[in-house]
Amino acid sequence: MARKDTAADAANPGRLKQIALTYKMTRKADKKIGLVLAAVGIVTFGVFLAIGFLIGHPVYLGILGAFLALMAAAIVFGRRAERAAFGQMEGQPGAAAAVLDNVGRGWTTTPAVAMNRSQDVVHRAVGKAGIVLVAEGNPNRVKSLLAAEKKKMNRIVADVPVHDLIVGTGEGQVELKKLRTTMLKLPRVLTGPQVTATNDRLRALGDLMSNMPLPKGPMPKGMKLPKGGPKAR
To answer: What pTM was estimated for this model as a whole?
Structure first.
């Protein structure tokens, strides 16, 4: 019993510290966050307290109002914190990968499955909607990356649908803050076992590629690979 109490006591300061850090980060991008939260809490509490006096139960409605005021403030804080976070992440390399890591349960994310010299990158997520390729970078350059990766996916897992998305604010692109919602709206066509099988096939391919004995440097012209393995001494 003592261990559970100790763990709970240790978790509370950590949680409060995390909330404080989130508030500080949000306040940098949203200067009015404190006033907004205070206004939401006061208005919510005031409305319920007024109703309580009207019906003759100010204490009961006051307690309920205080509880709902905290909930309303928490919801507003969460939304504004998320908006501020997306605003800070917009245009930063790897921002899409960070969003994909938080899409939700049932999704397996592999960042940077394809990249070019200009740091344009394609990430991959696998879920019940199939395979989703998410590109971030120059829209004109990432199209070729997406096409090559999509062709590879269709060859490896031909029976699994492959979707492709480009993160950005231009026409036909998906804003970073809408990426998670867009993915969750995709139709679910795979079962749990099919998702697992797809991940296993892609993971096996990745292990095969990573274990290939590739040379560290460029191969000299005219050099031929040996037909047999190294001879035992």
So the answer is: 0.59
